[in-house]
Design brief:
The complex is a heterodimer of chains A (484) and B (131). Chain A contains 17 helices and twelve strands. With 484 residues, chain A is α/β, with parallel strands linked by helices. Chain A folds into three domains: 62 residues, no CATH class; 256 residues, Type I PLP-dependent aspartate aminotransferase-like (Major domain) (Aspartate Aminotransferase, domain 2), CATH 3.40.640.10; 127 residues, Aspartate Aminotransferase, domain 1. In chain A, a hairpin with an 8-residue loop joins β11 and β12. In chain A, α4 runs antiparallel to α12, α6 packs parallel to α12 and α12 packs across α15. The two termini of chain A are 32 Å apart. Chain B contains three helices and nine strands. In chain B, a hairpin with a 3-residue loop joins β6 and β7. The two termini of chain B are 24 Å apart. Classes of the chains: A alpha/beta (484), B alpha+beta (131). The interface between A and B is small, with 11 and 12 residues.
């Protein structure tokens, strides 16, 4: 049964003269606005604001809020996004006045606690990455990529080398080639081999003295650890290039292996994935970057340094690419990452990854019998199933399955990514889900793939809005609401 | 045009070559297989007339509700015409793939790239392997 909750806009609910508040009488002399402002600055008529009662407003927003799916309300196996549960402890501590009520313009001596926290977070990320120096400033993973590529450009400029190319695998996140282009490089795609890993012959054929950086996501977007990574690093380093590690999938390897140990020179973290920062809503995010010593001088400024017992922001870094974000980055997210890391400790973080990988493999083993997994029987923290056969046989697509899962109270897995798998369904359960949740999801998925194609094409059947017209929304987006 | 008489690139562009005043003109489009794989198209970015293009290098972009993909030039030469009205009428691309859905016309400068193109039967085989 379809949920018929109102999706009317406040403007459509408006009724002339209705009010949510009664203001006290004005106790200062009133003067007409025409006496205060020149005529050319005055509007012809007052703005058409919606007129509503308090219950109207409360119901409107409360209803909208209940239409959200979140990891607090539903299982959310959105591959590549690591929708792990965000412990409420993070929120409680991040809201404490000593952390939340600071202002970045306060004198440094009154910010010592926060600076110590940020310094320690830098040090912890150094240890987790196996690299040498960290900047917490970038406001998102993609901005971390951009900052690191700008650093690579500065590094080669300083060395007098002309390098114009950045190589990315065909399974990479779209942000990788986009960041390369934004940083002024030509993005060149490297093909995958039959196992979904980097095709070494193709890499060798595209690698030359023009190559600045090879960007690799490892584990990859197929949920596979590319075991050639040390060889890749040695080939790229041999050609004078740098390795960038897209840290989107760090949730699979915490405390087990380190990017610096398998050859990466630069990387970003996604604290909202790996370290349980809140997702979505367009931010605020954070994308700390870690680099080897030879690149440290180019890191965005400032970084937090320790002088004896005190901490300060170091801005005296002449080779730095400069600021990429105001103040110290999105500190609220960094505080949550710090709390998460401190709560778990080294052994706890390792168990996080072990359980993330175990959960994904358990689900893979249950799903593979009715949805093929093109890249094998084992995975890291996520796996990619394919509905290609189902589409050929019965006309049912990955999108149909994803939409139908909403009717059973599951968020849709990532679909149609990575692009190298036809009708891809990318499932990432994360470490925080129980066996019961995974079993229930697998059983639902099994039931859904057997349902009638017609039922699936028209799903979801229970949400307020079923299938928005994505094509028209993309071709002719209506971005402003105008009164009729 | 009958697809069986066209040449195809690995990257799914189709090519029709004809002689015109001693020059070879290639009409280039995107194959039915590729258009179906992309699903609903929302945006196409074509090169400007006069731009020099190289076989195997990006020529423009096509965006669907699923993904943004590069269009690759199957030949080397100069763009002499772009089917710009397509941008407002993307249905044409799927309705008349090998006719009104053409993307660009290129005056072939260097014929080297032509040898790498496939005939229809070979291309069909590639598609079957990819599907």
């Amino acid at each position: 049964m379809r949920n018929t909750q109102s999706t009317q806009l406040l403007f459509e609910l408006s009724s002339p003269g209705r009010r949510a508040a009664r203001l006290p009488a004005c106790d200062v002399p009133e003067r007409p606005v025409e006496e205060l402002l020149p005529a050319e600055l005055l509007a012809d008529q007052p703005p058409p604001l919606p007129e509503l009662s308090e219950p109207d407003v409360v119901r409107h927003y409360t209803n909208l809020s209940t239409m959200n799916m979140s990891v607090d309300t539903n299982f959310y196996p959105l591959g590549s996004c690591t929708m792990k549960y965000n412990p409420k402890r993070n929120e409680r501590i991040a809201a404490m006045a000593g952390l939340a009520d600071l202002h970045p313009y306060q004198p440094e001596e009154s910010l010592q606690g926060m600076l110590q926290l940020l310094f320690e977070l830098q040090e912890m990320l150094v240890e987790i990455s196996g690299l040498d120096v960290v900047s917490l400033q970038p406001a998102a993973g993609a901005q971390g990529e951009l900052a690191a590529l700008m650093m690579a450009a500065a590094y080669y400029r300083q060395r007098g080398e002309q390098r114009t190319k950045v190589l990315t695998p065909d399974s990479s996140h779209g942000t990788n080639p986009a960041s390369a282009a934004m940083a002024g490089f030509d993005a060149v795609t490297v093909n995958s081999n039959g196992n979904g890993c980097v095709d070494m012959d193709d890499l060798r054929s595209k690698l030359d003295e023009q190559t600045a950086v090879f960007m690799i996501t490892n584990p990859s977007t197929l949920g596979l650890f590319d075991q050639q990574v040390a060889e890749i690093a040695s080939v790229v380093h041999g050609a004078g290039g740098l390795i960038y590690l897209d840290g989107a999938n760090m949730n699979a390897i915490l405390g087990i292996t380190r990017p610096g140990d398998f050859g990466a020179d630069m990387m970003h973290f996604n604290p909202h994935k790996t370290f349980s920062g809140p997702h979505g809503g367009g931010g605020p995010g954070a994308g700390p970057i870690a680099v080897r010593q030879q690149l440290a001088a180019y890191l965005p400024s400032p970084i937090v340094v320790q002088d004896g017992d005190t901490y300060r922001l170091d801005d005296d870094r002449p080779l730095s690419i400069g600021r990429v974000r105001s103040f110290f980055g999105n500190v609220g997210v960094l505080v949550r990452a710090y709390i998460y890391i401190r709560t778990h400790g080294p052994d706890g973080l390792r168990r996080v990854s072990e359980n993330a990988v175990l959960n994904a493999n358990y689900l893979l083993a249950r799903v593979k019998h009715f949805l093929p997994i093109p890249h094998g029987d084992r995975c890291m923290h996520e796996f990619v199933a394919s509905a290609a056969q189902l589409k050929t046989d019965r006309g049912v697509t990955a999108m149909d399955i994803g939409k139908r899962l909403l009717d059973f109270g599951y968020h849709t897995p990532t679909v149609y990514f990575p692009l190298t798998v036809a009708e891809a369904i990318m499932i990432e359960p994360t470490e925080t889900e129980s066996k019961e949740t995974l079993d229930a999801f697998a059983e639902t998925l099994l039931r859904v793939v057997d349902e009638s194609p017609q039922l699936l094409h028209e799903a979801p059947h229970t949400t307020t809005i079923s299938r928005p017209d994505e094509v028209q929304a993309a071709r002719k987006p209506v971005l402003t609401w105008v009164a009729e | 045009m009958n697809p069986e008489n066209l040449l195809f690139a690995k990257t799914h562009e189709w090519v029709h070559v004809e002689d015109s005043d001693g020059a070879k003109i290639a009409t280039v489009g995107l194959s039915a297989f590729a258009i179906e794989a992309l699903t609903d198209l929302v945006f196409v970015d074509l090169p400007e007339v006069g731009r020099a293009v190289t076989a195997g290098e990006p020529l423009g972009e096509i965006e669907s509700v699923k993904a943004v993909s590069d269009l690759y030039s199957p030949v080397s030469g100069e763009v002499i015409e772009a089917n710009t009205p397509l941008a407002d009428d993307l249905e044409k691309l799927s309705e008349d793939v090998y006719g009104a859905g053409w993307l660009v016309k290129i005056k072939i400068g260097d014929e080297a790239g032509l040898a790498d193109l496939m005939d229809y039967a070979t291309y069909q085989k590639q598609c079957e392997e990819e599907a």
